[in-house]
Amino acid sequence: MDQTREAVLAAHGLSRSFQGVRAVDNMSLSLHPGELLGLIGPNGAGKTTMFNMLAGALPPSSGRIELAGHDVTREGAEKRLGRGLGRSFQIPRPFPEMTVLENVLCGAQRQSGESVWGAAFRLGAARRDEARALEKARQIIEFLLLGHLVDQPARVLSGGQRKLLELARLLMADPKVLLLDEPAAGVNPSLLEEIMGRIVALNAQGVSILLIEHNMDMVARLCSRVVVMAQGAELAQGAPDAVIREPQVIRAYLGDAA
Question: Residue limits of the ABC transporter domain (predicted)?
Fold first, then answer.
């Protein structure tokens, strides 16, 4: 079976250089329908550069990216979001003075009232869209365990709650693929369990997820497969428990201490 052809997100031979330094070197990766895939590696391995190319924030120097069979290599993040790919950031930046609900509503897509034509000639449709968006936002907020904060300004949220808020805003666009950038970073252990539970629930609903994470316990618990990067290229891939015991992976993380 050619798994790459069936992938919902696939990178083929991606490379990216900065001032002559190759941060990613001929890297290929496939995310399959319903998969929860981990992308791991030591600091400086090229994970963030790879992630940004997949998300559309950074064009590759060479190679190709496909999303649901479409070549999206030269498309930006907004176009990819419209095709069903959403990404989170390691440090979320919500609108601090807007409420949780207002922040989530910012993620609504294709509203009738967004255009001059829609606002002027489709007032009824715009109002129906707004009502549907409001109901959807409230449901997502409840799903992500933020219901008790729905009317609070985003500035009062903890770091973990801000990560959930960012995820809520992404879910307003009905993504089929999510790229999650270190959702465990800076999160207290009790809230981390809730975040992990929501990630598992989303995956169970059919959302394919690519996860960059340094918390290896979280990776081992969530991911059925991991890809390890080192020096811009793939070092290993497979089941988490097996991969993290491979000698070359241990050396990549620990260096001479291995």
Answer: 9-256
